Here is the input.
Amino acid sequence: MANQLCTVGSQSVRLQKEVYINGNASVVGKKEGEGPLGSLFDMVGEDDMFGCNTWEEAESSLQKDAVYLALGKAKRKPEDMRYIFAGDLLGQSIATSFGIMNYNIPLLGVYGACSTCGESLTVGAMAVSGGFAKEVVCVTSSHFASAEKEFRFPLAYGSQRPLSASWTVTGSGAFVLGDEKGENCQAKITGMTVGKIVDFGLKDSLNMGACMAPAAAATIAAHFIDYNSQPKDYDKIITGDLGSVGQRVLLDLLRDKGFDIADRHMDCGMEIYDPKKQDTHAGGSGCGCCAVTLSAYILKRLAEKNWKKVLFVPTGALLSKISFNEGQTVPGIAHGVVLESL
Here is the structure.
């Protein structure tokens, strides 16, 4: 086992045995389907209830459908999966619990706020590369209405959103990881940089891009140092959901650290909606934002060899209504995953 993983620097891993993404799927809501990436998603709901009675049930259905589609693309069955690494934004991860329990796959729940996609891919790839599992599935989700109720105000409250606010993506992305290349393999995972909690003292829960940007900058800089690499070594450096406000903060912080990524940075939250036609202010956010963008767009670019190597860095704001109402700050975290074309 020991020769399968290689720790690099202070917080990174270079996988000695590459891990393949053999199946992937994206399921999104109506608003996401109307955005620039709409034609690329596997399933788009006619409305955001998805035939369910509550927002939370609807989010569970997102995960259930995403896992089903990803397994189908990988030509695998639930019983072929050793583990499922899954999480969401809701208390006790109820979207996950009720969404995937009927698959009867051993569950390792993960939570990194909106960075959960990166965390699940990290631990899933470590499990496969280390020989602890031959195949696993990773999934995460978010839902605009359930997230607003969980973290801010119910929609019926009618609160106004400032321009710095982002729009929680209604969507779920699922990925089947394996130790052998499958027929429909899109890309491979070759390494990762696990992020640290970073807190710049910000308290504005409606400006999460600025709250998360310091963590993204710290992880990206740590990755460059650990890997002895530079921005030019990657075709794209992709953050999860910083949005237009967080992007500016990220670029400035990295320049202060000696790294200029402006010419190759992309943010999933800025790609998923059209700011000229959709009233989403700073962009998209939520666990589902980077997950569905990775599945529908990023992996497609890697599979077609438009990009050969990307650093995928989902970002998360670690807050709750309780911490916010008690006057606590909004710390951030970000996890980096190295994705390469075949």
In short: The chain has a mean pLDDT of 94. Residues 2-178 form a domain with the Peroxisomal Thiolase; Chain A, domain 1 fold (CATH 3.40.47.40). The first strand starts at residue 5 and ends at 8. The chain has ten helices and 16 strands.
